[in-house]
Amino acid sequence: MAESIKTALITGGSKGIGYGIAEVLIKEGIHVAITSRSKVSADKAAASLNQIKEGFAIGIESDVRNLDSQQKAVETVISKWGQLNYFIANAGVGHFAPIKDLSAEQWQETIDINLTGVFFSAKASLAALTETKGYFINIASLAGTNFFAGGSAYNASKFGLVGFSQAMMMDVREAGVKVTTIMPGSVATEFSDHKPSEKDAWKIQPEDIGQIVSDLIKMPARTLPSKVEVRPSMPPK
């Protein structure tokens, strides 16, 4: 019997790093579901991805801040393709300001999406990943170990995410589920209202993170790179 096609779910996959990961995985013959809080954005991105391989992508409207929403996203994938092999927790937000200027709403949104959202993603997907001996990959940040002025909310969320992800790795590995934290530095995306341009050529590109994800899932089952730090190789002086 032919082996079934592997399936991935990527939160925040309609643009940026999430979309770059989706492109790489689809080119390698993996079904990909991408989520966004906007159904229009999710469907538009899925349609673009399906131009690479028709029928290999679906868009799902989902909000990582809501556990029920994450559970429904996982159920949608399993209903469509029968299994879930890879979950890439990519959705994130950044609010950067000194504490005196950072609003309570900005703080709460950052923690809710970047940290609590990953917990909800893990809770929603763990049973399915245990069944397939799958992989849960967190897209964190070098800001998870390097603090900076104006980064109190973002640093707190990413420091917390790195700790959560490493503890989760130890919780679930005996069930055959792998967990890796990817910690990128500067990536050329629309994050925090940035407009990518030719000036960003020195930065990590979204598809570069996709290649790392691809390499991770090809590792032998006995080997687990639990944390991967990624930096631009030639940043401007």
UniProtKB/TrEMBL annotation:
GO terms for biological process: monocarboxylic acid metabolic process. SUPFAM superfamilies: NAD(P)-binding Rossmann-fold domains (SSF51735). SMART domains: PKS_KR. InterPro entries: KR_dom, NAD(P)-bd_dom_sf, Sc_DH/Rdtase_CS, SDR, SDR_fam. Pfam families: adh_short. PANTHER family: 3-OXOACYL-(ACYL-CARRIER-PROTEIN) REDUCTASE, 3-OXOACYL-[ACYL-CARRIER-PROTEIN] REDUCTASE FABG. This is NADP-dependent 3-hydroxy acid dehydrogenase YdfG. It comes from Dyadobacter psychrophilus.
